[in-house]
From TrEMBL:
Residues 32-158 form the Uncharacterized GPI-anchored protein At5g19230-like domain. It holds the Pfam family At5g19230. InterPro entries: At5g19230-like, At5g19230_dom. It comes from the Eukaryota. Residues 1-29 form the signal peptide. It comes from Hevea brasiliensis (Para rubber tree). PANTHER family: OS07G0645000 PROTEIN. This is Uncharacterized GPI-anchored protein At5g19230-like domain-containing protein. The keyword Signal applies. The keyword Signal applies. Keywords: Signal.
Amino acid sequence: MTTMASSRLCLLLLFFLCFILFINHPVKCDEEDTLLEGINSYRKSLNLTVLTKNDNAECFAEEVADQFKSQPCTNSTGSNTVPGTEPQIPNYESLLAKCHLNVSNTKDGYVMPACVPNLDPSLVLTNFTETQYSGELNDTKYTGAGIGSDGSWIVVVLTTNTPEGSFVTYNAASLTTKIGPVSRLLFLLMASFFLL
Ligand SMILES: *[C@@H]1O[C@H](CO)[C@@H](O)[C@H](O)[C@H]1NC(C)=O
Ligand SMILES: *[C@@H]1O[C@H](CO)[C@@H](O)[C@H](O)[C@H]1NC(C)=O
Ligand SMILES: *[C@@H]1O[C@H](CO)[C@@H](O)[C@H](O)[C@H]1NC(C)=O
Ligand SMILES: *[C@@H]1O[C@H](CO)[C@@H](O)[C@H](O)[C@H]1NC(C)=O
Ligand SMILES: *[C@@H]1O[C@H](CO)[C@@H](O)[C@H](O)[C@H]1NC(C)=O
């Protein structure tokens, strides 16, 4: 093989590598990461532990945001809701099921939808830290969070470290999610072998 051909092969492999990594890590919305950082700064200022990212809660947050996306922001939606009159999330259990979750491992969690036009980052953060939601955000029982957004809606789902709030998926889901990293590792190994 000529050096020309082998360097082309290298490029091709690199391209595939990037492609695979890209597929496995879809680009995350900045708003979501920014909000988690903001919430964690808020918790640090109260001397509370930071919330770790929970991927299963994030899946559920995306599903909930998807349900709300067609509703416009008003002074009675999202964090403006009068406590006790929160709209029930329709088909809650089927949304959980989409993320391979059920009530048993999510009932201690807490779902907080907020509506902010254009998801303006400064308003998004204060819609959580300076509203009724602050009472949940400053609660020591929560240890993790997943954030999803769609349209003007951004949803934070808080998780606990108890089984009832862990957002651990049931068997079928944990199997499929384990295949991902393993096949990625295999591919990396194969690719690096070729590159040597
Ligand atoms: C957090 O801890 C620091 C150091 O222990 C203390 O000075 C500060 O007042 C605490 N803040 C709150 C909000 O409890
Ligand atoms: C919400 O908006 C409506 C109509 O714009 C207004 O009549 C009402 O007073 C507002 N409620 C609050 C709590 O601001
Ligand atoms: C929450 O977002 C709304 C936009 O929907 C904004 O008008 C309001 O000022 C925000 N509230 C806080 C406390 O940031
Ligand atoms: C948490 O927030 C609630 C509601 O804003 C407040 O009443 C409570 O004192 C706060 N607790 C702490 C530890 O900051
Ligand atoms: C939730 O899933 C667990 C594990 O599969 C199962 O044992 C439990 O009965 C399920 N609970 C509900 C309410 O479906």
